[in-house]
Structure prediction request, 295 residues.
Amino acid sequence: MYISILLVWYILDYSKEIEKVLKKTSPQILMGLSCQTDDFFGKQPSKKIGQGIEFNHYSPYTEGENVKNIDWKAFGRLEKLFIKKFERDSNERFLFLFDTSKSMLFKGSDSLYSKLEYSFIVAGVLTYYLLQSQHPIAYQFSNYFTGYQSDRKDFSFFVEQFEKLNINSSINWEFQENIHRKGRKTVLIFSDFFEDINFLVEKIKKLPELHSFHFFHTIDNSEIDLKESDITKYVDMESGEEIVTDPSEIYKIYKEEVETHIKILKKAILNSGFYYHKFITNNKIEESLMSLLNS
Prediction:
């Protein structure tokens, strides 16, 4: 069971918050985002050879190239080795998927934003730059799906979704009905992933390999490393259950459980050929964006 301190939820002016991040972000990061957001998500070589990309042409095989891309049928006809070359669809679609469970409302004493606010602002910045390339983008919160939009003027539409959101549930793993349409999708999942680890691993294993998945593990540092202090009351933000205890008595066990949870989660994601990004909400958002570009 994961426990967090309850806080009062309030609505940020996300448009202003995103604008603040853009102004604070150095020109180097802004240039990197404008050039690499599309590159990072849209044109990144697939870890699953030949999937989600269109065949473009053949070229003679040279030593060191991936033998999985050799066309053996062509070899049988021509007795020469040829490699299949692929390229991605430039109109690749992006689905932003948000965990809106109550645990995402947690904000540590050293953090400017709750986990949900942090996720929204990062997503807003990425949305801004992806729309500059006119990529179709959609958001999904629980059962609410926005539909795909691709015009730059639609940026305000997406920001408005944050401001009228109802906090109700964790990730809706039935979101796949919104990606099983023609063409490859890139899915960006924002969550603290504070669910049963076996449940999460099974869901990750069942995700379709055709699409690219980026998992943004958004957590507060105080949830990873409990401070050893006086008797403290903890409140489970999902169930409302309260526990009063001395952190020093559970510190070691809690820390080991959380580290094991994160380790298993990350391994499941990477072993499936997907991408794992850990965002600590105590860090400045512009620093997290830079780490994303350098990953």
User: Anything to note?
Assistant: The beta strands are 54-60, 82-87, 93-98, 137-141, 144-145, 185-191, 212-219, 232-235, 242-245, 275-280.
